Amino acid sequence: MKNLRQIVENIKGLGGENPEALQPLLWKLICYSPKMPSRLHQQDLLDAAEYSSFKVYDQYFSKSELRVNCFKWGKGPVKILLTHGWGSKAIDFSELIHTLLQHKEVQVIAFDAPGNGSSEGALSNLILYVESIKQIQLIHGTPDVMIGHSLGGMANIRAIQQMDEYPKLLISIAPLVKLRENFKSSMDSVSISEEAQQTFFSDFEALYGMSTDEFTLDQMFSYEGRVSHHLFYEASDAISPAAYIENFLAQYPSTTAVRYTDTTHARIIIDARVISEIDSKVKTLF
Q1: Rounded CA gap, 258 and 72, in Å?
Q2: Considering the entire predicted model, what is its pTM?
Q3: Domain span at residue 263?
Q4: Which stretches of 162-241 are DSSP H helices?
Q5: Is the pLDDT of residue 47 over 70?
Q6: Are 22 and 192 in contact (CB under 8 A)?
Q7: pLDDT of 205-219, one tens digit each?
Q8: Same domain (yes/no): 107, 146
């Protein structure tokens, strides 16, 4: 968090007067993922994991291979992949992992995405998440269940688009729906002018060679009816607004959803009701 606070202070110091001078700082604001230490009970679970690592190539920032740390619990035949959100890490699913490990039938695989947790990378993006998921598929095979929170939910949906095989269950917890709007919200929070924002989006589209309109769940979920998709969300979530999610649900009616009114974007992954619902769905596979 200290690094993020410094980025914000540097942006405020420029006063928004020079859109070009702001651009390097805006890339850091958008693509730097703050890191939080593990809690004691999380560390105990990490210590019990089977640890491995793999490499993904970062073609946009460092232009180098980054080490991605991966963790596995259990030896059952039902493979479950967990994909964490922005500014998070694998072990933030600790409560869900504990519940799933009550079943001898499962093995749980999770990873720290590049630039998050213990993995390498100064900056991160959706594509690095997706490439990590694809590497895990190559190493461990296609997961039976894919569970993602926030940006991790969007990354799972994007990765499945590029897979030859689909999971049996896809579970999205407060997934991001419109990446451009999330970026805009971050820039609005530090009073970035429309001119500077438009410069950032133009540079973004030039770097990635695609429109920001392509970074939406509406565009990515191109396999309706071929994957059993279940979604959990919070009505007052400012990061993943309910209006965006409900518009997605209207377009893709095969997705089932549960709406909550008394949790938060961060706490929904440790909400006992959500964990119980997920556990029930996973148990249908054995």
Answers
A1: 28
A2: 0.97
A3: 39-178+220-283
A4: 179-188, 194-208, 217-220
A5: yes
A6: yes
A7: 999 999 988 899 999
A8: yes
